[in-house]
Design goal:
Elements: E1 2-6, H1 10-22, E2 27-32, H2 36-45, E3 49-51, H3 54-59, E4 63-66, H4 70-82, E5 86-90, H5 97-110, E6 114-117, H6 124-134, E7 139-147, H7 161-171, H8 173-184, E8 187-195, E9 201-207, E10 212-218, E11 227-234, E12 237-240, H9 248-265, H10 273-291
Parallel strand pairs: 1-2, 1-4, 2-3, 4-5, 5-6, 7-10
Antiparallel strand pairs: 7-11, 8-9, 9-10, 11-12
């Protein structure tokens, strides 16, 4: 499969370009970015070609991977789907329900495969744990803490304008939801949403299974306090998400495997654009409650 990359930032450089260029079943054709010099530098490092015209790249590939801010990703994903390119997308899919729905509809109309790179879902130990817990009945409640130190350390993502504007809710919220939803089921209601220190937010969710979950999300945690924890409690007892040794390149390689499988079989992956849209809907509801000062509903 011939694939192109849209984006030249730190995530494109650290994860996407190495994963695409190193994949045995992908022909990494080229890179397009909003900064032509950065696109050329990244393409040169990985034996690909830099494109000044995004449509020219779309015309020469079977698929695209997008590593751009969500407000830029969504319209480009629609454009790529309309060019009949399969889609390897990043989270969050979009920052509005309307833009997320447009991506889903474009992919469906063009009959192209979509995979959203929820990192944890493509880490081997995490995926195995989710599969195991999803088969267990009787979960009562869950606790997810996704605490990053992006803005309290020398993280390369600290300069990201969209992260500074949207904070942890939109950056690490998708990670937590991607783990909880396949185990506890869809969210029936955002029962409560409250702000904590700086960009930290706390959510209480009611799931269709009858279980509830609490989420604590932050990008401003002290570095010593950063980390991710998911704990489930129910009839089977207590279980905690295991640590994963899979780095982002390995996880993204597995996401590319999923894209290839979907393109061959036509079967949707659980982490497709439809899941990306559902996550966007949940986050948008929580954001609206926070903006309106509504703690419960």
């Amino acid at each position: 499969m011939r694939i192109g990359l849209l984006g030249t930032g730190p995530w494109a450089e650290a994860a996407y370009a190495p994963a695409l260029s190193g994949h045995r079943e992908l022909d990494f054709v080229g890179v397009w970015g909003r900064r032509p010099d950065a696109a050329k530098a990244l393409a040169d490092r990985h034996g690909a070609r830099a494109y000044d015209d995004v449509d020219a790249l779309l015309a020469e590939v079977d698929a695209v991977a997008i590593a751009l801010p969500p407000s830029v990703q969504a319209p480009l994903a629609v454009r790529a789907a309309q060019a009949h390119c399969h889609l390897l997308l990043d989270k969050p899919l979009a920052l509005s329900v309307e833009e997320g729905r447009a991506v889903v509809e474009a992919a469906e109309q063009a009959d192209v495969t979509s995979v959203v790179f929820f990192t944890a879902r493509f880490q081997t130990a995490t995926e195995d744990w989710i599969t195991e817990q999803a088969a267990v009945d009787g979960w009562f409640t869950a606790r997810a803490e996704w605490l990053g130190s992006v803005f309290t350390s020398d993280s390369p993502f600290a300069a990201s304008p969209w992260r500074r504007e949207k904070g942890a809710l939109w950056d690490v919220g998708p990670h937590a939801l991607s783990v909880l939803l396949p185990v506890l089921g869809d969210v029936k209601q955002v029962a409560a949403a409250a702000r904590g220190p700086q960009d930290t937010v706390h959510l209480v969710l009611e799931h269709v299974s009858g279980a509830s979950s609490t989420l604590t999300l932050s990008l401003t945690a002290p570095p010593a306090a950063a980390g991710a924890t998911v704990e489930l409690r129910g009839k089977a007892g207590v279980t905690v998400l295991p640590a994963s040794s899979d780095g982002p390149v390995h996880a993204l390689t597995r996401a590319a495997d999923a894209l290839l499988a979907g393109a061959r079989t036509g079967r949707p992956h659980p982490c497709d654009a439809a899941l990306g849209l559902r996550v966007t809907e949940i986050l948008a509801t929580a954001e609206a409650q926070l903006a309106n000062g509504i703690g419960t509903r």
